[in-house]
Amino acid sequence: MVDKKLSGAGLRGQSAGETALCTVGKSGSGLTYAGYDVSDLADNATFEEVAYLLFNGELPNQAQLDEYKASLLTQRDLPQALKEVLKLIPKDAHPMDVMRTGCSFLGNIEPETDFSQQHKAANRLLAAFPAIMCYWYRFTHDGVEIDCTTDEDSLGGHFLALLHGKTPSEQHRKVMDVSLILYAEHEFNASTFTARVCASTLSDMFSCVTGAIGSLRGPLHGGANEAAMDMIQKFSSPADAKVQMAGMLERKEKIMGFGHAIYRESDPRNVIIKRWSEKLAQENGDTSLYDISVACEEFMWDSKKLFCNADFFHASAYHFMGIPTKLFTPIFVCSRLTGWAAHVMEQRSNNRIIRPSADYVGPEPRKVSPISQR
Ligand SMILES: CC(=O)SCCNC(=O)CCNC(=O)[C@H](O)C(C)(C)COP(=O)(O)OP(=O)(O)OC[C@H]1O[C@@H](n2cnc3c(N)ncnc32)[C@H](O)[C@@H]1OP(=O)(O)O
Ligand SMILES: O=C([O-])CC(=O)C(=O)O
Fold it and tell me: Where is the catalytic site (predicted)?
């Protein structure tokens, strides 16, 4: 694994454009947003500051941040028409499909009609996504039509308050904020690349983000945090985890939450969210799921030199905060929207339609025979 070359299928190792937003696997801890190390941002900034950074290129000063947060606060509620649409989506729908529909529908009723509105569209989605997820979830699962506004200062706290219907603890607010920072941006990953391809046709922001949500949904990308949770919940102890994982590897099954397309030895986000997962486990007074997760990490490294990516310890961390597993990937959407929108803006600022070539491997030229002879 460690010496595996970044080349081959899946466009691996090929540069597909330029970005000033992010480096992955290069300097410092291995992940930077506009020059800032992600661990520095996680320790010393908030998610709203990171969103501002990605959208504007610089961190805000206090006055800019206050103004930005005040503006986001006024945009958290959903239009009634969108609430009606969300109520029509069945309980057993995949919440990523809910996010996709919510984003797409908002693009119908509040369209981005020209690119001068790109910040407006991005900020509206940023403010509204927690309510899109929670309004649908609470209506279909608890039978309540929630008030989509809260006076929570941060988007992370706002999400937790909408979901649980009560004020979150300071520690939970902090973990959500860190999590949103860690997931915010990651260069040319599959969903961001989807957004950029869409942007390159000069399409609108809502279409770019809707497409990106579809790409993030898959278990090889954002969907891995849910799949990791489903897996660790099946293990009864650290020892059982090791036995069962050995079986999975023998059967050549993919272990979700491990490995990465770019990082070779570790994902710098893992150490940060792992630390928070441990703190939450201790706070809950039951560390068994955390201990099982650590056993998985040890086993995968010892047997395959595969390491936890950002998704693996997010699973237990979210679980400890009482977040239902099916909402794990939609939270990723609430965060990555910032990276997607920033890339859409960057693509638009220096655009050429993205249209690669393919190596043809199909049949030689041939003639259509009459249907009766086929
Ligand atoms: C936030 C994020 O989106 S992070 C990614 C989340 N996705 C997951 O956690 C899904 C599980 N992981 C994977 O499927 C892969 O590691 C990916 C999709 C992330 C990266 O895929 P690739 O770039 O093709 O992986 P890479 O080239 O490093 O794979 C090397 C070998 O390790 C194997 N491998 C990689 N990850 C895993 C895994 N999680 N479980 C089992 N085997 C694995 C591959 O099958 C490959 O074996 P091979 O050479 O015999 O075919
Ligand atoms: O970069 C990738 O391929 C996947 C990833 O970790 C992310 O999008 O956060």
Answer: 260, 311
